[in-house]
Specification:
alpha/beta; Alpha-Beta Plaits; Rossmann fold; nine-stranded mixed beta sheet; four-stranded antiparallel beta sheet; globular
Length: about 400
C-alpha cells in the first residue's frame, strides 16, 4: 500500500469505530481485526502503520469526532508529512479543504474531565490515562517463580512492584510463546495484581471471586492459595465464565465455578452464606482506568451509564456482604478512577452495613484515597484502580 492509501484505510476504520461508539457497538480492536480479516492482502507493515494511525487519532480526540477524516485531520495540525498524504491519489484521501471539520483535541469529553477533576485527578493524571500501556505478566507460582520465568523468556523483562510481576515492552506478543502455552504466566497488569494482593488470600481458606469474568484475578488467587482450601469463581456472564476452565487447566489451578442469575445471586449462593474467609468483588464499572488499552471507551460513556454502574456495584457489594464470615474480609475493586463508582460506593456501603469496617492498606505503590487505595498510570505506571479492604466485625 502507498502511504496515502494507509491514511485512507485508517480513516475507513475510524468511521466504523466512531459509529460503533455512538451505537454501543463492537470495540475498536474487534472492528480493526475484522477490517483486516476481510483484506488479507494487506501486509504486516501496512497493518502496523494503519493501526498506529487509528489509535493515535483515537487518543488525540477528546470528544467523539464527526468522522474518521476529521479525527485524522486532528493529527495533521502537528504533522506536515501526514498533511501531504491528503493528495487525492488513487486509494488516498482527498486533498484538505479549507474549513472542513477537524475533531477537537483533549483527553476526554468535558463532562468526564469535570468528573475526574472532582475525583482528585488533575490534567496530568487525566492525560496519562491515554498513554500506551506496557505488557505486564504474572509469574504463575503454581509452576514457576518470577526469577526463573524471567530467565526463560525470549526478551528481557523487568520486575514490577507486584511480587510476581514482570514488565515487557509495548506490543510484545507474549501469548504466542511456549511459556504461555505451558501455563508459566498470565498476562495481567501490575495494578490488577496488586489489587488481588489486597485480599491476602491464604492457603486453606474458603474464597469467593464474585465477579470473576474470564478469571484473571481468580487465577492469581488460586496461586496465592497454593491450590488448597476452596476457591469459587462466579459471574452472571456464561460466555466469560466458560473461558475460565481452559485457562485454569493451563495454569494448573483448582477452581470451582458457578453461574449466577441477576437478582437471584443470594439464593444461588445459599450454601456460602456467612462461610467465606474472603470475598473479592471486582465490580462492574466504566473502566476509565483502562483507557490506555481501550481509548475509544471514553467516547461511549454517559452520566447515566456512570449512575447505572454505581447501582450495580451497590447490589453486588450487598450480595458479597452476606457471604463473609465474622472476621472475614471483603475487597472491593473498581478499575475506574471516578469517585462516583468507587470511593462514593464504598462510603454508601459502609453507611448501610454497620457490621463492616475499612482496614488500612499499605501497598507497594499507590496512595490512600478516601478509605481505600488508588493506583493510576501517571502516579504508578499501572492501570487505574480504586480498591478497599473491609473486615466483617
Amino acid at each position: 500500500m502507498t502511504p496515502a492509501a494507509r491514511v485512507q484505510a485508517a480513516i475507513d476504520i475510524l468511521d466504523e469505530v466512531i459509529a460503533a461508539a455512538r451505537g454501543q457497538g463492537a470495540s475498536a480492536d474487534r472492528l480493526a481485526a475484522e477490517w483486516f480479516r476481510q483484506r488479507r492482502y494487506v501486509g504486516s507493515k501496512d497493518r502496523r502503520a494503519i493501526r498506529e494511525l487509528v489509535w493515535a487519532a483515537i487518543r488525540a480526540c477528546g470528544d467523539v469526532p464527526v468522522s474518521g477524516r476529521a479525527a485524522v485531520l486532528a493529527l495533521v495540525q502537528d504533522d506536515a508529512a501526514l498533511a501531504a498524504l491528503f493528495d487525492g491519489s488513487t486509494y488516498g484521501p482527498a486533498p484538505i479543504r479549507a474549513g472542513e471539520p477537524v475533531a477537537t483535541g483533549g483527553a476526554m469529553p468535558g463532562w468526564l474531565a469535570a468528573e475526574m477533576a472532582a475525583s482528585g485527578l488533575d490534567a496530568a493524571e487525566q492525560g496519562a490515562l491515554l498513554g500506551r500501556a506496557p505488557l505486564d505478566l504474572r509469574a504463575n507460582t503454581l509452576k514457576i517463580d518470577r526469577e526463573s520465568l524471567a530467565a526463560r523468556l525470549p526478551v528481557a523483562a523487568d520486575a514490577t512492584a507486584a511480587p510476581h510481576g514482570l514488565r515487557l515492552p509495548v506490543g510484545t506478543q507474549a501469548e504466542t510463546w511456549p511459556e504461555f502455552a505451558q501455563g508459566l504466566f498470565e498476562v495481567q497488569d501490575t495494578g490488577s495484581q496488586i489489587a488481588c494482593q489486597a485480599l491476602d488470600a491464604q492457603p486453606g481458606e474458603s474464597v469467593v471471586d464474585l465477579c470473576a469474568g474470564a478469571g484473571g484475578k481468580t487465577l492469581a488467587l488460586a496461586a496465592a492459595m497454593q491450590n488448597t482450601g476452596r476457591l469459587l469463581a462466579c459471574d452472571i456472564d456464561r460466555a466469560r465464565l466458560q473461558r475460565l476452565a481452559p485457562r485454569a487447566e493451563r495454569a494448573g489451578a483448582l477452581v470451582e465455578t458457578r453461574l449466577l442469575n441477576p437478582g437471584q445471586e443470594t439464593a444461588i449462593l445459599a450454601d456460602w452464606q456467612g462461610q467465606a474467609d474472603a470475598v473479592l468483588v471486582d465490580a462492574p464499572c466504566s473502566g476509565t482506568g483502562t483507557w490506555r488499552r481501550n481509548p475509544e471507551a471514553r467516547w461511549r460513556l454517559t452520566p447515566a451509564a456512570i449512575a447505572r454502574y454505581a447501582q450495580m456495584q451497590a447490589h453486588v457489594l450487598a450480595v458479597a456482604a452476606g457471604l463473609v464470615r465474622p472476621g472475614g474480609r471483603l475487597v472491593f475493586i473498581t478499575c475506574s478512577l471516578i469517585d462516583a463508582e468507587g470511593a462514593d460506593g464504598l462510603a454508601a456501603f459502609l453507611a448501610t452495613h454497620r457490621g463492616f469496617r475499612c482496614e488500612p492498606l499499605d501497598m507497594a505503590v499507590g496512595r490512600p484515597h478516601r478509605g481505600g487505595w488508588r493506583l493510576s498510570p501517571y502516579h504508578d505506571g499501572t492501570d487505574g484502580f480504586f480498591f478497599a479492604r473491609l473486615v466483617r466485625l
